[in-house]
What we know:
The protein has helices spanning 37-45, 61-68, 91-103, 118-146, 163-166, 172-203, 209-213, 220-230, 239-245; strands at residues 4-11, 15-21, 27-34, 50-56, 74-78, 250-253, 258-261, 264-267, 270-275, 278-283.
Amino acid sequence: MNNTKYVGLDVHSATISCAVLDFDGKLLIHSTIKTDANSIRYFFNGISGSVRAVFEEGTQAQWLFDLLSPIVSDVCVCNRFLIPSTGNKSDLHDCLKLASLLRSGSLKSVFHHHSSPQTLKELVHSYNCLVSDTTRVMNRIKALFRSRAIPASGRAPFSSDHDPWQAKLQEAGASSRLASLYRQLDSLLLLRSEARKAMLAEARRHPSYKFLISIPALGPVRVAEILAICSTPHRFRTKRQFWPYCGLGVVTSSSADFHIRGGVLKKKSGSLIFAGDTTIYRRA
């Protein structure tokens, strides 16, 4: 008799709905537990036999994966967008569906691993968020000048001396808003510099850093991001999947490739090529 149990978890910030199926698909347990490490361990310690657990990718996914891996036979973290939708939806329905799909072998796991550099992941995430926030504030500053027909191209509006640019705005409200934006920018630039230093210091501790940094066109920031996001190249089937994931694959993008000239259908002579973060216009 097969003693395998399939546990579907519908994870929320405060509670987790759990459904346990046996090998024949019979519902053995339906329970709602607290989203807490001790409560989760207590629940799973009460399930006998070989236990396989499944839950959707989300905010708590890595934490829950690390928590369950030592106490169950298998942990499957699945992509919720690949789960077929049905008309009914409830906590019981969701966790039961996950357990049923796991039992039938219909789910594909999203990559999670204990060896993932969690510290570097957090530092890279912090740096990328600060880069996005800095860009957002810069765009707001430029938009403030453009809305008043004041030229503000390049990086000139972001120089360390804000007074000449502050003087360009005579309106009290706009001037006050610009001063606030400049204070935000100065704070973000400082935090961004600190985050970059911490990220690179952590990346240099990784054994693969020296090899990756020796590759032409890979700078220290891109190497840190590759180490944090990819974790290991062995999870990719071939290098054709690995390089685009790193943002280094060449991807062509075109539209309306043909036109009619002199009554003859001809192909246009150019296409856009995206290589990492760079866009190149290539002539055929």
